[in-house]
Amino acid sequence: MFPQFPHPLVRSHIDNVLDLYVGMSQCMFETAHRLSALNLQLGRELIAEAGARTERVLASQGAGQFGSALIAQFTPGSQAMVNYQRGVAEVLSRCQAVISQTAADRMPAVRRSATAMADDLLQEASRQTAQAAEQLARFQPGSQLRH
Q1: Is residue 121 part of a domain?
Q2: Could you tell me if residue 2 is inside a domain?
Q3: Which InterPro entries does UniProt cross-reference here (predicted)?
Q4: Contact of 57 with 37, CB cutoff 8 Å
Q5: Does residue 1 belong to any structural domain of this protein?
Q6: pTM of the predicted structure, to 2 decimals
Q7: Which of 40-44, 68-72, 124-128, 143-147 shows the lowest per-residue confidence on average (mean pLDDT)?
């Protein structure tokens, strides 16, 4: 019978690590999607504000009204930027919370599987070392087994 490849403990560890990475990747993709939506919303709001300001410049009557409308044209939409910054902060803090929770939920399984894999590797190495020492002792008749 052929040995299983990969070893069941290695397979378990790979599954646990992939589960961790998939959980984190899902959060990152959702965050990128939300940030893209925020960017689109900001762009729409800034374009709408620029259009409204341009209308005010064109509809202005008198030098004073024209000057104030023209100055407002060069001032970016502060409320749109405040909303954007607040939205970005919310999206990123939510992502950080989800990633922290994902890591807290899945890291114990990753640690357990890594420990089990390392213990099994150590036991197998010890067993093979003892077996090699026995075989070496058989070929050297006057030697004693030392380990």
Answers
A1: yes
A2: no
A3: Phasin, Phasin_subfam-1
A4: no
A5: no
A6: 0.69
A7: 143-147
